[in-house]
Every structure is written in C-alpha cells, then in structure tokens.
Write a structure and sequence with these properties.
Pfam families: ig, LRR_8. With 521 residues, this protein is α/β, with parallel strands linked by helices. 23% of the residues lie in helices and 18% in strands. The chain has a domain of 89 residues: Immunoglobulin-like. The longest helix is centred in the last third of the chain and has 34 residues.
C-alpha cells in the first residue's frame, strides 16, 4: 500500500488544507511581497513597461520599481544630486530615463551603474555647472543625451569618453565658451555623433582649421547659431561653405547667425554674419577655406590626385558616380582615360593635365533610404615650369629696379658730399673777404685802378669798380637804422669820371647799365 506525500502530511497533521487556511496564506503573501521590488510605487503611474513619477515632489527615486520597466520618467521633481545607486534597483532593461526639470547640480562617477543599457537620457533644465570626466562611462549603449538649459560652463576633455554609440548631443542654452573639439578629433572622438546642438552659448571663436578634417556627415549636424561670434572672415568662409552644401544647421537658422566687432565686445552693434556685403572678405580668404574643406584642389601637371566625395549619406548602401567638366560620366570600376572612381566614392586622376581643370560633380545615391546628394569640387591644374619662369622674370625685374634705385641714391650722395672745390672758388672767397675789410664807409666808393703793366692795361681800360655800402648816422630819428641814400647830392658827387681809353674792340662798359654805350662817329 502506497501513500503519496500529500496524504502522509495530511494524516500527520503537518499541513491541513481548508478554505480558511488558503485565505490566510494569500493575505500573508500579498503583505510580504507588497514591499518587494516589482510593484508600482504609490507616487507613480505604471503601464506595462512604463513608470511615470512626474511632478510628485520627490527627492529620491522610489525603491519598489518594476525590474522589467523600459521607460522611467522622473521629471518635475526635486532630485538634487546623482550618486552611485541613486536608482536603487538594477534595471538592465531600462533604456529611457527622463530626469528633466529637477535640481540636479552634480553627477558623481558611477551614478549610472544600475542602468547600464540606457539609450536615451534626458538631464535638461537642471542646475549642472561642470561635467567632469568620466561621468557617463557606464552608458556604453547611449545614443541620445540631452543637457540643454543648464548652467554648464566647463566640459572636461573626457566627460563624454566611452560614449562610442552616441549620435545626438544637446548642449544649447548653457554657458559654454569653448567648442568641444574632443568630440570630433583625437583618440576619444565619437565617430557616430551626427548632431551637436551647442547653440545659444558663449562661444566667440571656432577652430575652423581643425574642423576641416571632420567628415561632412558630422559637420552637417553642428548647430552654432545664437553664439556671440567675433566677426571673422575664416568663420564666415566656413559657414558660407556649409550654406552652399545645404547643411540644415545653417540654412534653417541663417538669420540667427550674428557677429560682434572686436572693437565692440559688449555687443552694442551686432552684424548679420551670413548676409551679403557685410563681412567684405577677400576672395583668397574664402578660397583658402574652401581648399581646407576639400571644395577646391590644386595640382601640377603630371601629379597623381585623389579627390574624396565627402557625402553626408556615405554609408554601406550608397553608390557614387562623378561627372567631369566635359559632362563625361565616371563610374566605379571603369577607368576612363586617366580617371578612376573607387567604390567609396573617391576620384583618382593618375596623370593630371591642364585640360583636366574645371568643376567636377560627385553624385551619391542611396536607393534604400531614397536619398541622393550632389557635391561640387573644383580642380585647378597648373604648369609648374611656366609658373616658375614667370616668377623668375618677375624676380629679375624687381631686382633690376632695386639695383637702379640704390645706384641712384649713391650717386646723389657722392654729388652732395664728395664734389671737389676748385682753387678759383677759394681765391674768390679770399678776395671777397679782403675787399670787405678794406672798404671805405661810404655809399659809393670808386677807386682808380693802379698802374698795371702795359700788356694788362689795355685789357682793363674803361672798367670801373663801384662799392655800395650802408652809412650809419647816429640820429635819434633814425634809431640807429641803416640809411642807404641820405640825399641826392651824395649820390651825384660819388660818381667819378675817369679818362676813357678806347680798346681795340672799341667796346665801352657803362656803370649801372647793362645796355652798351655806342661812341659818336
């Protein structure tokens, strides 16, 4: 005779089953398990895998949450600090966490250790000031991070380290003064980041040259409007390039881009940055920025040139074709003359020639996503030999002109300072000094020439020397001034007549007259 365990236990009185016992057991089970994790907290509303605890004046997260929840909304509460295990229940299935409009002022390392599989995290409209590194390192699967409308003024270089799947980052309406370049360059760059909204911050300058190496797929999602930029031609060129590429970050917010003159840092006069005829930037500056971003390529005759098709839709299902300046279709795996197109969209010119210069168009087509994009690239091919000869000729001309100027200056200096003085100049100066020292103080003084030798007398006949000197009269009415002609009688008496001797040439020199005096016949 065999008895089952249920009959044996009943006969022994160990366990008696009746309706009253079952009711007590059910009540006990509910009372014990009610406080265990897995139940909906009284302050929240639960719907299958969604738990909403919004606007309940909570300062901490309730402890009895669903382990299987996928979305937790804690917005509009009074949570202040995020510390390790601030979410007390390990929630491996939780992928969306919303904690906006709270009072969060700091985030400690390890705060998200209990929510490792988050894909969407909203920390907007809080009081965060600094993002230290690393604070999000546990969130390996995070794709969207919202941090807008905080008070963030400092972002450490590794604050977003480890978020290799992050696609969208919102940092608008903060106090950031430097562009977070570490998101795009360096060993910790986020290659999947396609949207960065850093609008309405305090950024004044941009690292344009460093951004030139960032793919267009990432550049097209950088939103910079609303920042107090300084008026700069390099920044203007970058934004114009983005505008011509039809980046929505510039096209949709064109009127939100403004700049300040560096002489007016307080911003009394803000200028529209992307309006025509405002910046007055030179064409060379704009072209240099286009070259940096791959819009213009320069090459010499015979060079091998590779031009990349920097498309925003360059994923695995995208096909590329090129159109040459003479409207020839260049397709992958089909070599045409010295052109070759690779599957990734790059165009190779094996032997560049002058006739290869012009505007090329790269067309990217994605049939699955029903997207296409056209990128225009200008290629300039020049002859190095011709350019070198022209440069040599220009150098020779400039050198010749400079040498002529130097020689002219040397000759002028030699003429001014090294001209020899003849002996006659010295004799005349000496004679003038002697005449001034021996002159009689009269108005007109004429002296008869001394007896000269017979051979010199003939040449000097008829020549008179008259000296005109001032007369000083110490009268009170004169005040010691010089009186040139005191009266007419002195002038009359001062004219001396001498015997006129005819010369062989029969010429006569007259005193006080330049006209010749003809003797009577």
């Amino acid at each position: 005779m065999s008895l089952n365990w249920w009959t044996l236990l009943t006969r022994l009185g160990v366990f008696k089953v009746n309706c009253k016992g079952l009711a007590c057991l059910l009540v006990f089970t509910v009372s014990v398990c009610g406080s265990a994790p897995g139940m909906c907290p009284a302050a929240c509303i639960c719907a299958s895998d969604i738990v909403s605890c919004t606007n309940k004046n909570l300062t901490r997260v309730p402890g009895n949450l669903y382990k299987s929840m996928k979305r937790l909304d804690l917005s509009y509460n009074r949570i202040g600090i995020l510390e390790p295990e601030w979410v007390p229940v390990l929630s491996e299935k939780l992928n969306t966490l919303i904690v906006n409009h709270n009072s969060i002022s700091s985030i400690s390392a390890g705060s998200f250790s209990t929510t490792p599989n988050l894909m969407y995290l909203d920390l907007s409209s809080n009081s965060l000031k600094t993002l230290s590194s690393p604070v999000f390192q546990e969130l390996k699967a995070l794709e969207v991070l919202l941090l807008y409308n905080n008070q963030i003024n400092q972002i450490e270089s590794l604050a977003f380290g480890g978020l290799y799947k992050l696609q969208k980052l919102y940092l608008s309406y903060n106090l950031v003064s430097h562009f977070p370049l570490d998101l795009y360059v360096g060993k910790h760059k986020l290659t999947d980041l396609v949207l960065l909204d850093i609008s309405f911050n305090h950024i004044q300058t941009m690292p344009v040259q460093r951004l030139s190496s960032v793919p267009a797929r990432q550049l097209s999602g950088i939103y910079l409007h609303g920042n107090p930029f300084y008026c700069d031609c390099v920044l203007y060129s970058m934004l114009i390039f983005w505008y011509q590429r039809h980046f929505s970050s510039v096209v949709d917010f064109k009127n939100e881009y403004s700049c300040l003159l560096q002489s007016d840092p307080r911003g009394h006069n803000q200028l529209p940055l992307l309006h025509d005829n405002i910046m007055n930037c030179s064409e060379s500056t704009v072209n240099s920025s286009f070259q940096a971003f791959g819009f213009i390529h320069d090459a010499q005759v015979g060079d091998r040139l590779i031009v990349h098709c920097d498309s925003r839709i360059g994923d695995m299902g995208t096909q590329f074709v090129w159109v040459s300046p003479d409207n020839r279709l260049l397709e992958p795996d089909r070599e045409t003359d010295n052109f070759k197109v690779f599957p990734n969209g790059s165009l190779e010119i094996t032997d560049a020639q002058l006739e290869n210069s012009g505007l090329y168009s790269c067309i990217a087509i994605n049939k699955k996503r029903l997207l296409n994009e056209t990128i225009e690239v200008r290629i300039n091919v020049s002859n190095f030999t011709v350019n070198r000869s022209h440069a040599h000729e220009a150098f020779n001309t400039a050198f010749t002109t400079l040498a002529a100027c130097v020689a002219s200056i040397i000759l002028v200096l030699l003429y001014l300072y090294l001209t020899p003085c003849p002996c006659q100049c010295k004799a005349k100066k000496k004679k003038r000094k002697l005449n001034q020292s021996s002159a009689h103080p009269s108005i007109l003084n004429s002296t008869l020439p001394q007896e000269l030798p017979a051979d010199e007398k003939k040449a000097s006949t008829g020549k008179r020397v008259v000296f005109l000197e001032p007369v000083h009269e110490p009268k009170q009415s004169q005040n010691g001034k010089v009186k040139l002609f005191p009266n007419d009688s002195v002038i009359t008496e001062s004219i001396l007549k001498t015997t006129r001797t005819k010369s062989d040439s029969d010429s006569v020199n007259s005193v006080f007259s330049d006209t010749p005096f003809m003797p009577p016949a």
